[in-house]
Amino acid sequence: MNYPMPTLAHLRTARKEFKRIEPRDFFYWSVTKLVAAVVDTKARTSMVDELVRVLMMLLMTWNKNYYRFFNDRKPGMTLEGHFRELEVVISKHFDRLIKFRSQKIQETAEIPEQDIRDIFEDFAGVLGRVGAAKCLHLLAPGLLPLWDAAILKGYGLEKAKYRHRTDAERYIAFIRLSKAQIDNLGDFSSLTDNPLKSLDEYNYCRFTKKVAFD
Length: 214
Fold this sequence. Notes:
The chain has helices at 8-21, 25-41, 44-62, 64-68, 70-73, 79-92, 94-101, 113-139, 149-154, 167-185, 195-208. The protein is mostly helical and 214 residues long. It has one domain (8-208). It is globular, with a radius of gyration of 17 Å.
């Protein structure tokens, strides 16, 4: 599979462009801090419920097209019922998600692919494939990348050998290529402490907003 290998200069350009064109970045940073506050200070008995409500603050902003047609996607489902669905899958995978939360993709020699595949399938069943990736990134921001439909298409993850793959398998492929891109960057410490967020800004600018980098 051929895919771009962004440089640090590309990521710097993307950061400036992303801040210019995407005001919703404020919600990302706010919800990231709220998720950390819940995970770091709450007992598990109350943590999952609060996590769901914090995560939904961002998902209903970032993934608004999914919720625009929510009643068509989930006939008869209320938002409270939807929240409970998410609570169930977070509770089911809670221990693994907390473990993933402490990991950084650039320091992880072997990606736990089967665990991630299982988790992604359950989250996608509740949130769709875009919402699942966004939610999982918020829960484990150093290990699990974000994508959207344009990014998935831009990397060719719906054609050729991926045409008949599941979305969970495509997400694993996306994690592999994200790690390869980060490994290729070398020392990125002067730019970011989370290369997955910087890569998402680059991917969003390049594939979603059609910004030219070369």
